[in-house]
Write a structure and sequence with these properties.
- The chain has 4 helices and 5 strands; from the N terminus they run E-H-H-H-H-E-E-E-E.
- The chain has 109 residues and is of the alpha+beta class.
- It has one domain: Orthogonal Bundle (Arc Repressor Mutant, subunit A).
- The strands form 2 sheets. It has a 3-stranded antiparallel beta sheet with strand order 1-5-4, with helices on one face. Strands 2-3 form a two-stranded antiparallel ribbon.
- A hairpin with a 5-residue loop joins strand 2 and strand 3.
Length: 109
């Protein structure tokens, strides 16, 4: 059985959304931080030296665009802790004949 790990985005609005998100340095930095290992917003903030409020805003944007997955755990103190992991491994774009192509490579690790 072959697993499809790449998707060509056809909808113009979705293409624009992906390109807008990827043009943001904080979104790119967050995606890089959570590419291989799920992390909390606090861990991302500390690792990437991004203000925590900015991390939460960008995580919400990434979540709304379906670029990350969220999971939750209960700490030993009984608090809920959310972990975030990138759903995408790479985004390939090209521009030719006035058209933009956006291909997403999924993160299966």
């Amino acid at each position: 059985m072959q697993v499809i790990n790449q998707l060509k985005i056809e909808e113009p609005e979705r293409k624009e959304s992906f390109l807008e998100i990827l043009s943001d340095k904080y979104c790119r930095s967050i995606l890089e931080a959570i590419m291989d290992t799920p992390k909390s917003a606090i861990e991302v903030s500390r690792e990437k030296m991004i203000p925590l409020s900015t991390v939460y805003r960008r995580i919400q944007q990434l979540h709304d665009s379906k670029m990350i997955r969220t999971s939750g755990v209960i700490t030993d103190e009984g608090k809920r802790l959310f972990l975030y992991k990138s759903k995408i491994k790479a985004v390939n774009t090209s521009f030719h004949d006035g058209q933009i192509d956006v291909d997403v490579v999924f993160n299966h690790t």
